[in-house]
């Protein structure tokens, strides 16, 4: 586990249209789905990732940042 502060803001990038949106991540759970506000595609985690933030965002989810591994 790490003593570093947890970042809660992360910018998701849609792989379909390239739209970027900064969101606040949930702190104790994973977010498995995210609907792009531009094209409407529903993002799901890539194989091996626990959530959409770990797959498509600039900062991984809080459980991964804490060093505890995936939250799923």
Topology, please?
Layout: E1 9-13, E2 20-24, E3 34-35, E4 42-43, H1 52-56, H2 62-65
Antiparallel strand pairs: 1-2, 3-4
What does this structure look like?
The protein is an alpha+beta fold. The protein has one domain (9-65). It is 12% helix and 19% strand. The chain has two helices and four strands, in the order ββββαα. The strands form two sheets. Strands 1-2 form a two-stranded antiparallel ribbon. A two-stranded antiparallel sheet has the order 3-4. The protein is globular and about 35 Å long. The two termini are 17 Å apart.
TL;DR?
It is built from two helices and four strands. It is an alpha+beta fold.
Structural features:
72 residues, alpha+beta, two-stranded antiparallel ribbon
Spatial strand sequence of the major β-sheet: 1-2
Low-pLDDT runs:
none
- Structural class designation: alpha+beta
- Name the average pLDDT: 90
What number of structural domains do the residues give?
A: 1
User: What shape does the CA trace take?
Assistant: globular
Major β-sheet profile: 2 strands, antiparallel
Using only C-alpha atoms, the radius of gyration works out to 12 Å
The total count of strands amounts to 4
**Terminal-residue CA separation:** 17 Å
Beta-strand content bin: 15-25%
């Amino acid at each position: 586990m790490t003593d570093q502060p947890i970042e809660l803001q992360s910018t998701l990038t849609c792989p379909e249209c390239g739209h970027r949106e900064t969101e606040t991540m949930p702190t104790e759970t994973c977010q498995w789905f995210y609907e792009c506000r531009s094209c409407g595609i529903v993002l799901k985690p890539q194989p091996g990732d626990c959530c959409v933030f770990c797959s498509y965002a600039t900062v991984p989810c809080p459980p991964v940042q804490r060093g505890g591994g995936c939250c799923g």
